[in-house]
Amino acid sequence: MKKRYGFVSNSSASSFIVRYLDVATQDGFRQQFITNEEVNFLESAGWFKTNTLRSADVVYNPEELDSFDPRFPVNYGKDVIVNQDDVILFLLEHNISFTGTCHYGDETVIFNKDSEYFYKFHNIGRLNEIEISYRYKDPESVIEDNESTKHYEKINVKEWIAENQWLKE
């Protein structure tokens, strides 16, 4: 088991979706987005099948693992309580497209296979709710902060992987 000491900046609840099979067409064809090898790799790493379409809705429920409605897409999901960067590193290193909801919904992370970049979108509505409702900030000051804040990050995949190899220690 990996132990980390000191400040851990990425501790929170996060969940991820990897698209697997799309909805069946009238002729019965279903588009598969990942290879059988990638399926085996995900399953061996603890990913589970889900009909869930949004990463924010991923919740591990063993009772649902074998009950899929064939009319809906089948995806692979994973939810983690801490260290979502481990999951992001795993997916980027294996060039697997994904969508993730991180930091209790404060960020959305998206990567498309073979892309040079992945993206983090800061879900500003959720962040504003916390600032105003829980930290009792004035809504006007939050609006001013929003105007000067960049709401997304375009991150180079190779550079991020190189900078985060420490996660494997």
The helical percent reads 25-40%
The tally of strands reads 7
| Strand ordering within the main sheet | 2-3-1-4-5-6-7
Mean pLDDT: 77
Number of helices: 5
SSE topology string: EHEEHEEEHHEH
User: How much of the polypeptide forms β-strand, as a percent range?
Assistant: 25-35%
Largest sheet: 7 strands, antiparallel
How does the overall form come out from the CA principal axes?
globular
Structural write-up:
There is one protein chain. By secondary structure, the protein is of the alpha+beta class. The protein has one domain. It has 5 helices and 7 strands, in the order E-H-E-E-H-E-E-E-H-H-E-H. Strands 2-3-1-4-5-6-7 form a 7-stranded antiparallel beta sheet. A hairpin with a 4-residue loop joins strand 4 (98-102) and strand 5 (107-111).
Record the SSE blueprint.
Elements: E1 11-21, H1 36-44, E2 48-50, E3 74-82, H2 84-93, E4 98-102, E5 107-111, E6 117-122, H3 124-134, H4 139-147, E7 152-156, H5 157-163
Antiparallel strand pairs: 1-3, 1-4, 2-3, 4-5, 5-6, 6-7
Properties at a glance:
7 strands; single chain; 26% strand; 169 residues; alpha+beta
Quick overview:
With 169 residues, the protein is α+β, with helices and mostly antiparallel strands.
